[in-house]
Automatic annotation (TrEMBL):
Keywords: Kelch repeat, Repeat
InterPro entries linked: Kelch-typ_b-propeller, Kelch_1, Rab9_kelch_effector
Name this protein carries in UniProt: Uncharacterized protein
Gene3D superfamilies xref list: Kelch-type beta propeller (2.120.10.80)
Pfam families: Kelch_KLHDC2_KLHL20_DRC7
PANTHER family, alphabetized: RAB9 EFFECTOR PROTEIN WITH KELCH MOTIFS
Length: 388
């Protein structure tokens, strides 16, 4: 079974490409709950933005850019951010902690820690003091509980926590074993680390403040150095694995509620080109940027994307009902209905599908009106050219 539509990809030129896993992180507006807001509640001064940093193949300078997505037109623009970090920086993650982005290490960056102010759009180097992690690249980083965590790397396996309030690094108990070139994404209060460059490319490890480290079931495919984003689908989330060393044009999807991986390719679901050593991040609730060696791609995630294998004893009607329920909850989430309200609602109530169909019709009408405005602007532009 598949969802209602496939992911739509388009190539964009933002003056930045990188085939060595650049730093990519969402730096736009967040809700009070720390989520990327739906377009219908975006204010005049709000923005969908992502920060990119790495060895730029499109242009040796700059190595840091701010990318903005217009939710109305879908237009993607970029601007240069002055950056003190080496232009040759590669294999480095970046993590947002509240209103600051932190970047530690990276190839050519040794053991330096840099902080980017989202409000000021400026970088600064954090002075070293006390205990400090050793140099690393190809490592993972994530944020939980308002703190920065880094783990592993190409030659190291240790686990550290940085508290921005105190400026102190603390070494923690690791899971054991080296962790390199995996893809990391946080869903709720759990950090997922997927793939590995070591002997087992099928590793899937998680970490939470309440449960610590846990090894999940092995992946049904091999991967490392892939793009990775988490997409909210109502009650639950999907993790999308995009490209990677072993499946450069492939897309795999993981349901964090059922812990099931999609094993089927959808028509048009493959990536438009090869993304071997890639990185990805969301730039809106259902739109991601995917950066590869030769190009930057924008992917538009559909409602109800999960490709879910049938469960034993489940009838086709039950499977279709589950798919409709997931699509409905995803739609309500996109319209900013709280998860608590969705979870407590009787989604089998016949009134909800009716409400959803009305809302979908309204969205379709808004899309039609936007296209009409764009067509009118095109006609005016052509008339202006003729009159010149």
């Amino acid at each position: 079974m598949t969802g209602t539509a496939d992911t739509v990809y388009r190539t964009v030129d933002v003056g930045f490409t990188c085939g060595s896993r650049p730093a990519m992180v969402y730096v736009g507006t967040l809700t009070d709950g720390g989520q990327i807001p739906a377009p219908n509640i975006m204010g005049r001064n709000d923005a969908y933005q992502a920060l990119l940093l790495g060895k730029n193949r499109a242009n040796p300078y700059p190595n840091c850019m701010l990318v903005t997505l217009d939710p109305g037109t879908g237009r993607v623009t970029s601007k240069v951010i002055e950056c003190p970090i080496s232009a040759d920086i590669t294999y480095v993650p970046a993590t947002r902690v509240r209103d600051t982005v932190y970047m530690f290490g990276g190839h050519t960056n040794a053991d330096n820690l840099y902080a980017y102010s989202i409000d000021l759009q400026t970088w600064r180097q954090v002075p070293k003091s006390g205990h400090w992690p050793e140099p690393r690249f190809c490592h993972s980083s994530f944020c939980l509980g308002g703190k920065l965590y880094i783990v592993g790397g190409h030659t190291v396996s240790d686990f550290w926590c940085y508290d921005p309030e105190t400026g102190v690094w603390t070494r923690l108990q690791g899971m054991g074993g080296r962790l390199g070139r995996c893809s990391t994404v946080v869903v709720g209060d759990v950090a997922h680390m997927i793939g590995d460059e070591g002997k087992n490319h099928m590793l899937h490890r998680t970490f939470s403040l309440s449960q610590g480290w846990h090894r999940e079931a092995d992946l049904p495919f091999e991967t490392h150095s892939c793009g990775c984003v988490a997409h909210t689908v109502g009650v639950g989330s999907e993790i999308h694995i995009l490209g990677g060393y072993h499946s450069r044009k492939g897309v795999h999807v993981y349901n964090t509620m059922t812990k099931q991986w999609s094993l089927h390719w959808r028509q048009g679901g493959d990536l438009p080109s090869s993304f071997g050593y890639s990185r990805a991040c969301l730039i809106s609730p259902d739109t991601f940027l995917l950066c590869g060696f030769y190009e930057m791609v924008v992917g538009q995630l559909p409602v109800g994307t999960l490709v879910e294998p049938s469960r034993e004893g489940e009838s086709l009607i039950e499977q279709e009902a589950a798919l409709e329920r997931r699509a409905l909850t995803s739609l309500l989430t996109r319209l900013n209905v709280p998860n608590s309200a969705i979870a407590s609602s009787p989604l089998t109530d016949p009134v909800l599908p009716h409400v959803a169909s009305v809302l979908e019709a309204q969205e379709a009408e808004i899309t039609r009106l936007r296209q009409t405005v764009r067509d009118m602007q095109t006609v005016r532009d052509m008339q202006t050219v003729r009159d010149m």
